[in-house]
Amino acid sequence: MPCCARCCHRLLQIVLIGLALLLAGCGSVIDADQARLCRAVAPALHDETAEIVESQLAPVPNNATALRYRYRVRSSRGSGPHELICRFAAQTGAGRFNLVALIQDGAPMGEVKLYILKRWWLEDARGEARGAPILRLSPRSAYWLQQALGGLVLMGVYGLIATGFALVHGLYGRVNLAFGEVAVAGGIYMLVAVSLASAAGRLGPAGLAMALLAGMGGAALLSWVIGRAVIVPIVARARSPQPVLIATLAVAIVLAEIFRLTSPFRENWLPALVNRPVYIAGQDGFIATATPAQFLAAGLTLTGISLLLGLVRFTGYGRSWRAYADDPLMAALSGVRVPRLVGATFALAGGCAGLAGVAMVVAYGSITPGDGMSMTLKALISAIIGGIGSVPGALLGAALVACVEIVWSSAFDIGYRDVVIYSLLAAVLVLRPGGLFQRAALSPREF
Fold it and tell me: Is 24 in a helix, a strand, or coil?
């Protein structure tokens, strides 16, 4: 087996293992909104002074729209176990909020009682009781911790798309402005895959993992097609970088319009999965929280970034990429298979962008065509600040841009946030044209 194939095989194994570890803690994938409604039923069925202790919340086997909620009630009358089975109208869409049947301790609830419960209890329910934080921090420290937790996903998204810019620019010295829409495509492909998996039954960890891979794989294929059909022919005919900028901007607009026009024909929201808040740190004044979905999204982006750094630094593909970025002619004469390298680079860059889109869907529940250009600009700024053509520089620039965004949005007027980001870009271009890693245009584009 060739060295490149072995490296790709090992990388795929690592990715699958990483996804398995990230998803192992999810257990059965449960809609968080349905879980909240099912939990909110129990207090209405017992005395106000009763203490309800949850023991299990799980899907009902062979019923994709039902949840089983087991709990123990402690009151002055004693303690005992109870069970609720909540059945909803649908697994996806608006029907997933409609509780259509309730079985309490094996006895179905009557229609009149269920209507009263839904009309005068569930509509006024304030949600789940807040838990105690894991750590005790001052409200001010907890507030900044909350902002940092929110910035992890943002940093990963910008970093993954910025590395796509760096990978392609390292080979051709050109910028692909369609990467933001490629990221959007990855998120949309994931939503389509989730919809198909949900139609076949309740969405589980395996179905979610396959949807993640479908989003990444679809984005990688789309990026490869754009590279081979648009960028490579233009680079072969024009020495100026402007034609590639114009062509890829046109591709981005076309993709955004296609996604916008087709949005009414598909599911555009991921069901609220593993979104029960975890109370991390704080006090009564403010408690920093995060959801397992946010941790999963951050873990996906950081895992992808780590694997990409290892791929570029330690594999045969990385050596070929660095050699071609430094001297294309000498790399070709030394045996680098240029067409294969170019195709792999476009696919890898698209996979990174697709992972960014997938992470956004996992963290925020959806992704829209309008997000593409915004992500493109922020990621491009990250790549330029870090030194475009450098993969580590792109990641460092993404961390800086995300940090500036979070700090400014938390402490100052959010309306001026983008003004500050673009001003930072202008300052870097004036004071340090080669970026943080001093990658001036005339210097070799090495790792």
Answer: helix
Rg, C-alpha atoms of the chain: 25
Strand partners, 85: 68, 103
In DSSP terms, which residues pair with 83 in a beta bridge? Answer: 70
Q: How many CB atoms lie within 10 A of CB 2?
A: 9
Contact 387, 434 (CB under 8 A): yes
CA–CA separation, 208 vs 143, rounded Å? 32
Q: Looking at residue 17, what is its pLDDT?
A: 42
Task: Characterize 120-138 residue by residue with b for buried, 16 or more Cβ atoms within 10 angstroms of its Cβ, and e for exposed.
Answer: eebeeeeeeeeeebeeebe
Range with lowest mean pLDDT among 174-183, 195-204, 341-350: 195-204
Structure tokens at 442: 């005339």
CA dist 222 to 88, 183, 312, 343, Å?
37, 10, 22, 12
Within a 13 Å sphere around the CA of 411, how many CA atoms are in the beta-carbon half? 8
Collect all residues with Cβ–Cβ distance below 8 Å to 118 and sequence separation of at least 6. Answer: 99
The DSSP secondary-structure symbol of 273 reads: B
**Which is nearest to 289 in space by CA: 149, 406, 156?**
149
Tell me the domains of the chain and their CATH numbers: 3-19+136-431 (1.10.3470), 32-124 (3.10.450)
pLDDT higher for 311 or 34?
311
Rounded Cα distance, 434 and 388, in Å: 8
Rounded CA-CA distance 265/350 in Å is 25
Q: What is the SS3 assignment for 432?
A: coil
**CA angle, 422 then 166 then 154, to 5°:** 55
pLDDT digits (tens, 9 = 90+) for 264-304: 887 777 776 666 778 888 877 678 888 888 888 999 999 99
Q: 300 to each of 120, 237, 292, 354, how far by Cα in Å?
A: 41, 39, 12, 11
Report DSSP letters for 169-217, one per residue.
HHHHS---TTHHHHHHHHHHHHHHHHHHHHHTSS--HHHHHHHHHHHHH
Angstrom CA distances, 37 to 125, 273, 324, 423, stand at 9, 14, 57, 47
pLDDT per residue over 8-64, tens digit each? 445 444 444 444 444 433 434 667 778 888 888 888 888 878 888 887 788 887 787
